[in-house]
Design a protein that fits this description.
The protein is 81% helix and 0% strand. With 106 residues, it is mainly α. α1 crosses α2 and α3 packs across α4.
Length: 106
């Protein structure tokens, strides 16, 4: 029971951090994305990582899903370069946030 609770909590924390990173990346790249939309995109992308497939396949599916949802649910008009740039900036911000979280709980 505790393992399921830990997994759900970890998934939600990852979605909050990822959604906030997507929202901040949208602000930096001058795109329009609501925080709730970024949270849903990050949550769905995190759920794809739970699929019991190979590591590279789940990574490709997750990145593809993120780019597709950014194209559909935000003001991004082209996947290349706007959605890719937004995803790269969000990835950098998310890595920085994870580093800060690790330093806080060390």
């Amino acid at each position: 029971m505790y393992l399921i609770l830990i997994a759900i909590t970890s998934l939600l924390v990852q979605a909050v951090v990822g959604g906030t990173a997507l929202w901040l990346a949208a602000k930096i790249t001058k795109e329009h994305l609501l925080w709730k939309t970024g949270f849903i995109i990050a949550l769905l992308s995190s759920l794809v990582y739970l699929l019991p497939l190979g590591g590279l396949l789940t990574a490709i599916l997750s990145i593809g899903l993120t780019l597709f949802l950014l194209y559909k649910w935000s003001s991004v008009d082209n996947i290349w370069p706007h959605a890719v740039l937004l995803a790269v900036v969000a990835g950098i911000l998310q890595s920085f946030a994870r580093f800060l979280l690790l330093m806080m709980f060390q």
